[in-house]
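Phenylalanine-4-hydroxylase
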Amino acid sequence: MAKASNYTSKQPDENGVIHWSEDENKIWSELVARQLACIEGKACNEYLEGLKKINLPSDRIPQLSELNEVLEKTTGWQVAPVPALIDFDEFFRLLANKQFPVATFIRTREEFDYLQEPDIFHEIFGHCAMLTNPAFAEFTHKYGQLGYAAEKKDRVYLARLYWFTVEFGLMQTDQGLRIYGGGILSSPGETQYVYSDKPEINAMNVLDVLRTPYRIDIMQPVYYTINSINDLFDISQMDIMSLVSKAKELGLHEPKFPPKEKLAS
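Predicted structure tokens:
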């Protein structure tokens, strides 16, 4: 089940419009300005092209209908408003139907730099530009279909594939290392960290990815790179579930991070 969140998503009115406060729009504006400066020379071309297509307003939070117009035209996708946290079942169901879940709340100033659950800034700034790309969109759609049909114990393996691509994916290009994962693109800290000498950066190997543990509350100790966005389309055509079976047989790689400290009861 979805865990509890400190945030509550805003409900659209009868016309599908979400009413954001002046302060919420200001937070959006500051987040966008900061992150655009941060990803300069670091985001992949496909992301930058997508950003032009979705034409994000910098002074206010966009309405979902504005994004849907562009996504529908480019790849047939839509964004769907959801509560702050949803369970795996609903997450996969939405992706399987070409609907990208967007939690309709924005972080507070107290959590301006980092929050654990994905807010509307992360979902829209981090992911929506990439959803205008056909290869990325097809990969995400296929992932949703597989996940929706999969058993619970297999979904944990599939989650790793999503984590190391859609959320934290990197690409080797002629211009050098570039980012396409929304978890990095929407985080100033992680964007800088990727280019430090701290993380281990490996070439994409789907079986390895399915066997790589991760934690959501730390900088990633390991990333995987593709050579082109079309690699994601190629992965979407693989027999991923047979690779999941193989990953289960082989077991997980040793984590490259300490275990999470348990809170004293």
